[in-house]
């Protein structure tokens, strides 16, 4: 007899990056051991980086195996119908001790043609921000391929890009084609399509420990970039014990829940739900199951679990596909 499903946590997949630091440990309780950990992949089915269950009787089982065995029950009826046995989202935390490279992601059409992959629409929720931390999002004014290439070659690309000061609680929604970079001093929660396709445009001419520069993808990026000015920052309500909509796009819906005490949740079974604990702590209660989660935890609620209770004092991101 196969065990029943329950709220699932997964082992974090930790990634050292040239721009990474130690905040994933000090702020989000991740078990990092290096001083340049840039990313914690919380929930992933990217090839070579598939999440493994960390809690309960299914501990040690991969997310791919679970989906293969119980696609409707894990993914949800509507998600399974749309995506088959693919888990369509990737969840991460990032710690930018230094500026990330300036980059862009292709849309579904380009990514399918070139890489047999999804595109990479994504959003950032700023979990922590140092004073004067900034991000780059799009162009200051409508630009062109010619203007972009001139500034790229002159090493003045930053001068035509829009730089925005960021603080904790800010949300930025980046459609494919948006040139962007997370700036130094930021920790962000990132929700995106399942894709690891990134075109790096400029890396500030920095070198790794071996004296090597990182590969750029200038030619691939030319047809992927949206050269028009874009509005990326999202405003949202913070009504207590309510799923306040932050981003609602074809790829995912993200809500912000300021939890105070108890919230009863009902779901339809059409999609899985993911909770990311941004601040505080809370419990999930479900059919005899009860577990406490703290800041930095990410929890997958299988789609077949359609009624449960959140209880505690926390700031939570709620993500599903609608």
Automatic annotation (TrEMBL):
Residues spanning the signal sequence: none
Domain Phosphomannose isomerase type I catalytic: residue ranges: 10-116
InterPro entries: Carb_Metab_Reg_Kinase/Isom, Man6P_isomerase_Firm_short, MPI_cupin_dom, PMI_typeI_cat, RmlC-like_jellyroll, RmlC_Cupin_sf
Keywords carried by this UniProt record: Isomerase, Metal-binding, Zinc
Keyword Ribonucleoprotein included in the entry's annotation: no
Biological process terms in GO annotation: carbohydrate metabolic process
Cofactor dependency: Zn(2+)
Domain Mannose-6-phosphate isomerase cupin: residue ranges: 244-320
Molecular functions per Gene Ontology: mannose-6-phosphate isomerase activity; zinc ion binding
Keyword Isomerase tagged: yes
Active-site residues, record numbering mapped to chain: 200
Protein name: Phosphohexomutase
Taxonomic lineage of the native organism: Bacteria, Pseudomonadati, Bacteroidota, Flavobacteriia, Flavobacteriales
